[in-house]
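in:
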């Protein structure tokens, strides 16, 4: 972030992809703000979702006011929706946009730390690579999933054991 230019650099990360985006909005360029994004829409100077995250962040940091925005028409309930978002600092000092109702809590391993009263169902699934190993897949009341396999424990990514249980529970 470069506060003097109101320049925001963002990184959006998925399991096997990353998108980098930049937005700089100030009083001299508000009619055509600087924007660059790696996504297919943003590459052509389009108004991609990543651009709008930059706009919302800029508004929350008071880089400009909604009344100054003339580039596009904003929804009539935009100010009300904007009030439902806040900026917090993440675990590594990065800034994040979250719902206003968001309460920061320490991360824990849901497979081992959640109380059992939240568990809806559990399965014992054999390892695909070692049939002598079993992993526990858990479905919680809030419809979140967890597994005791290394793929889920270390990456928090949906594993083949969870997918197997999802296909069993929804079929």
């Amino acid at each position: 972030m470069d506060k003097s230019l109101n320049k925001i650099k963002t990184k959006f990360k998925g399991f096997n992809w990353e998108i980098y985006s930049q937005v700089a909005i100030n009083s001299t360029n508000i009619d055509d703000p600087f924007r660059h994004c790696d996504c297919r829409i943003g590459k052509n100077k389009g108004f991609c979702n990543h651009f709008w995250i930059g706009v919302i962040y800029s508004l929350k940091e008071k880089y400009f006011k909604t009344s100054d925005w003339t580039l596009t028409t904003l929804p009539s309930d935009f100010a009300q929706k904007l009030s439902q978002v806040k900026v917090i600092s993440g675990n590594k000092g990065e800034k994040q946009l979250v719902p206003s109702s968001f309460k920061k809590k320490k991360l824990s391993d849901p497979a081992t730390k959640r109380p059992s009263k939240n568990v809806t169902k559990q399965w014992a699934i054999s390892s695909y690579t070692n049939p002598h190993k079993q992993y526990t897949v858990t479905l919680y009341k809030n419809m979140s999933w967890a597994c005791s396999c290394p793929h889920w424990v270390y990456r928090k990514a949906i594993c083949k054991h969870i997918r197997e249980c999802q296909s069993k529970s929804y079929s």
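note: Residues 106-110 have pLDDT under 50 and may be disordered.
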